[in-house]
Backbone:
């Protein structure tokens, strides 16, 4: 099978990331309008140049919250109307950021739109994010909640403990991930954790949420918006910033049939392997050629799982590499897989920090953090439910 | 096992799952078995993913309830009603003996002080949540 026909045909021309805050004083919709406008300006374009919007409007809470368009999530319909636009292409796919980027690439390559803003707006509803007050375990939850098992943290804790028991990872094995993410996030002006790195004592002093997952192994819910302007690579060459091309993408696969919140480690790796293989095939690259892999970290174990899927560490060995400083962005010989600070170091942004990191490095806009890289990968999500996008310049 | 009524979310039987919950009320664990290929499925689904039948005609067949622990976690937050007084509690990911990969997650009712390890043997038991409503759980087993 040959490489993806749209390989390197579509590029990121600009971006914007809002300040990430615990509780915004303005609505998420207002933040989105501001951030999208900034991204368009960053790309050297006008609002009238944009003829497409794509977002994944997922509000990933299982809690009992009033979830309204414009406050808890922001659809393209909401946004377009309030920007006074009637774009010819707008989509609100289910799923995650890589799916939105993929859709933009396909649409631009097919000519359905010329310039698309892909954005992600995430909201902290306040109170307990996943607290659910339902008196009934109906539908799928009769196979989960009814037995006292509920929510993504419990799901991740199960998968991580499965790994930890099988491969002998210590109870503190995740600490270097949270600490690395917070170190890098502390350096971002827009981070919720700006200026607030995490020391090992604070990590260990924080409570367990679902053993062996501690509080700082989980990203913190925030209000934040990121936006990216995508257009044809050809057109992007006439715009102010160095274009960063989308080389390939790979998306979620059909899930195994499981009870709710049951995401076994082996499912992640089985389906994740297929996803990564597809990515490499589409990009016409091997994993060794990817010189700037950025893994997802909404929950700390996911970083480690992604590292093993990408061959950064052998199966069952990533916890040792991490313990030995193997992902420390300040060490020359390390693989800085969380250089942006990700979600643990910035707030629950569902993969936008990794995408920004890939963009800034390849566009040579990373300032003091600039590295010499040519092929960068932004991963997102639980492997079998997320995806990955490969970028080059 | 508790005899006191709790306000935990009660399972809502549907057209497919009703026999499962009827058996559970009698403290009997059943699994949905495909009428076409005899493969067990948990949970049941409109389609049997083993043989592809989209009319699987699930039969809820009693199973041994015996299995092994593949993972566990400790729940420390009351994200759902009625569990605050139970905290902290252990949930286990169990592979039932009847079929490789037949996995279900439920509480382990042995308390917080027992050491756990991969492959520890368990057997099903039940928690009575309300009159006529019981949900499966597990206990450590000797063999
Ligand atoms: Zn079948």
Residues:
């Amino acid at each position: 099978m040959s490489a993806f026909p749209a390989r390197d045909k579509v590029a990121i021309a600009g971006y914007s990331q809002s300040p990430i805050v615990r509780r915004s004083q303005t609505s998420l919709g207002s933040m989105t309008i501001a951030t999208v406008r900034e991204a368009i300006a960053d790309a050297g374009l006008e609002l009238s140049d944009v003829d497409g919007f794509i977002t994944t409007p997922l509000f990933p809470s299982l809690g009992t919250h009033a979830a309204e368009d414009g406050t808890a999530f922001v659809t393209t319909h909401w946004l377009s109307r309030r920007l006074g636009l009637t774009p010819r292409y707008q989509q609100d796919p289910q799923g995650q950021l890589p799916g939105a980027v993929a859709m933009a690439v396909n649409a631009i390559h097919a000519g359905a739109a010329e310039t698309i803003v892909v954005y992600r707006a995430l909201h902290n509803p306040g109170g307990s994010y996943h607290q659910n007050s339902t008196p009934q375990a109906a539908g799928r939850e009769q196979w989960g909640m009814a037995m006292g098992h509920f929510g993504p943290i419990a799901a991740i804790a199960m998968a991580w403990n499965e790994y930890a028991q099988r491969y002998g990872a210590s109870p503190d094995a995740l600490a270097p991930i949270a600490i690395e993410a917070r170190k890098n996030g502390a350096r971002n002006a827009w981070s919720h954790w700006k200026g607030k790195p995490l020391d090992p004592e604070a990590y260990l002093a924080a409570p367990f949420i679902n053993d062996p997952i501690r509080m700082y192994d989980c990203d913190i819910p925030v209000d934040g918006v990121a936006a990216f302007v995508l257009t044809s690579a050809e057109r992007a060459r006439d715009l102010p910033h160095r274009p960063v091309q989308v080389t390939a993408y790979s998306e979620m696969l059909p899930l195994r049939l499981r009870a709710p919140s049951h995401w076994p480690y082996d499912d992640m790796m089985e389906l994740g392997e297929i996803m990564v293989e597809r990515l490499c095939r589409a990009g016409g690259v091997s994993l060794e050629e990817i010189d700037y892999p950025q893994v997802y970290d909404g929950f700390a174990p996911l970083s480690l799982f992604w590292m093993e899927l990408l061959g950064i560490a052998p199966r069952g060995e990533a916890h040792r590499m991490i313990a030995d400083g193997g992902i420390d962005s300040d060490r020359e010989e390390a693989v800085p897989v969380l250089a942006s600070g990700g979600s643990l170091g910035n707030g629950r942004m569902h993969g936008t920090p990794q995408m920004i990191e890939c963009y800034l490095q390849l566009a040579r806009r990373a300032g003091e953090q600039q590295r010499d890289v040519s092929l960068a990968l932004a991963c997102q999500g639980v492997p079998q439910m997320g995806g990955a996008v490969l970028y080059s310049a | 096992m508790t005899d006191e009524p709790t306000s935990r979310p009660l399972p809502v039987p549907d057209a497919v799952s009703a026999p499962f919950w009827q058996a559970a009320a009698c403290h009997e664990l059943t699994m949905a078995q495909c009428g076409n290929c005899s493969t067990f499925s948990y949970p049941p689904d409109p389609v049997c993913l083993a043989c592809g039948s989209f009319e699987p005609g699930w039969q809820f067949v009693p199973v041994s309830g015996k299995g092994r622990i593949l993972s566990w976690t400790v729940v420390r937050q009351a994200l759902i009603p009625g569990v605050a007084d139970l905290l902290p509690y252990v949930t286990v990911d169990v592979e039932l003996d009847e079929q490789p990969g037949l996995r279900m997650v439920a509480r382990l009712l042995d308390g917080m002080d027992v050491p756990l390890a991969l492959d520890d043997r368990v057997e099903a038991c039940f928690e009575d949540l309300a009159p006529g409503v019981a949900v499966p759980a597990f206990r450590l087993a000797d063999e």
In short: The first strand of chain B starts at residue 10 and ends at 11. The interface with chain A takes residues 7-14, 17, 21, 41-43, 45, 49, 70-81, 83, 86, 89, 91, 93, 103-107, 117-118, 129, 135-137 of chain B (CB under 8 Å).
